[in-house]
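Human: I wish I could look at a protein chain and see how it folds. This is the protein in question:
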Amino acid sequence: MVTARWTVRRLAATDDGLPGRGPGVDCHELDSGAPGPRVVVLGGVHGDEPEGTLAAGQLCRRELPLRAGRLRVVPVANEEAFGAASRTTPADGVNLARVFPGDPAGSPTLRLAALLSTRVLADADLLIDLHTAGRHYDMPLFVGCLADDSAAGVASRAAAEAFGLDSVWLHPTYSAGRSLSVPVARGRPAIYAEGPGGGSVDLETVGSYVRGVLGALTWLRMLAAGPAAPPATGPVRYVAGGGDLDRDVLTFTTGGLFAAAVAAGDAVRTDQVLGTVHDVYGAVRQELRAPHDGRVMFLRRSAHVRPGDAAASLAEELETVGAPGR
């Protein structure tokens, strides 16, 4: 089998009808030359999440012997946010992960979302969006997927299991505005990966993401199983819940300095203290407590907090542990 060569195209939105003045992305594509699935991998939707960008970029350096379909990779989906190490686009302060499918006549971030929706995601048979918790939060390493009875939901769960991480978050729906909503609206599967935050680079997370993408490609029969894409083994933890980190979260009721009492990924019980907010003299101003049993899937990392800031999110831990065939 002849290994296909990567090609790179610069895709640019327009500004006032003039090409090249709006936001753009570098889109890497590997075409097997044979019919098959079209898979898209995004990194850098948020500019302060380096592991997804590194994993996507590493994929573009690999000589992958695709035997069917096409692989399309955008290592840095929001270049301006990446350059500023920011969760939002500096030009308009908008979060790219909240405005899909975008608007070609809107602000820079909305034009970027429209560009990605129409030029990158429109024909995707599977989207894999690589994230981490960013600078201010923490998450365990997991893959998230839609888990309803629709064709997109069934295929998304299968793709998430093929990704091969030992934790899977099952969602009843995807929130509006996410990149995942674009293929799902067409009945196609979409999954995302999350991992620890903090701003530094965790190379273990990067490696897990690369192996995960290769596992998904193997599941789709785009790659032959082998050393480059080992099958996942071992037990899998499943959790369930909304996962909308703008809505399905506990928030701080006061400002101060937050000290976590648990870690991301911990199982907690109802009314357990998750952390405390202190004033500068050490007095406790708020005890953050678990409203129900669950597993901590999102937790504030940085100390300085304000009223209304997201603090933590819990998911329901399911009884089922393990995946079919593992």
Remarks:
- The first helix runs from residue 50 to 59.
- The first strand starts at residue 7 and ends at 15.
- Confidence is low (pLDDT under 50) at residues 16-20.
